[in-house]
Amino acid sequence: MNSAFSGNSVDSGTIKEVRTRSTLGRDGGLSEIIIERDYSGKAISRTHRVTVESEIVHQHQDHIGDYGERRFPDEWTGTKTINTPDMENTYGNFYKRRNS
């Protein structure tokens, strides 16, 4: 992704770094990657968001831990997943094991 750093913000002890793609996608959408870092600067989550005409058309959040990246249900993360068809394949089996 050809990106340019576009800013950061501090939220409840974490820092959010926003990287915006320098060109629009094929759908005319603006693609952003929001990297959330803990107090030590370690990346703990990454959110990919695409907006077209100010409407979010695609969004998902991946959590980064010691054992790699995982996607968890929206109820756990507080971030709404939008238009991500592979979501069930990503966390479905993990979620089912935890809740059975």
Task: Give the topology.
Elements: E1 3-11, E2 14-21, E3 30-37, E4 43-52, E5 55-65, E6 68-70, H1 74-77, H2 87-98
Antiparallel strand pairs: 1-2, 2-3, 3-4, 4-5, 5-6
Write up this protein.
The chain is globular. The protein contains two helices and six strands. The protein has a six-stranded antiparallel β-sheet, with no helix packed on it. The N terminus and C terminus are likely disordered. The chain has one domain. It has 100 residues and is an alpha+beta fold.
Which key phrases capture this entry?
100 residues, globular, single chain, alpha+beta, disordered C terminus, 6-stranded antiparallel sheet
Largest beta sheet: what is the strand line-up? 1-2-3-4-5-6
Q: What is the string of helix and strand elements? A: EEEEEEHH
The percentage helix is 10-25%
Assign an overall shape: globular
Alpha plus pi helix count: 2
CA(first)-CA(last) distance? 39 Å
* Alpha-beta content class: alpha+beta
Provide the number of structural domains: 1
**Backbone CA Rg:** 14 Å
Mean pLDDT: 78
Q: Quick one: how many beta strands?
A: 6
Low-confidence stretches: 1-6, 91-100
Q: Strand fraction band?
A: over 45%
Short description:
The protein has 100 residues and is of the alpha+beta class.
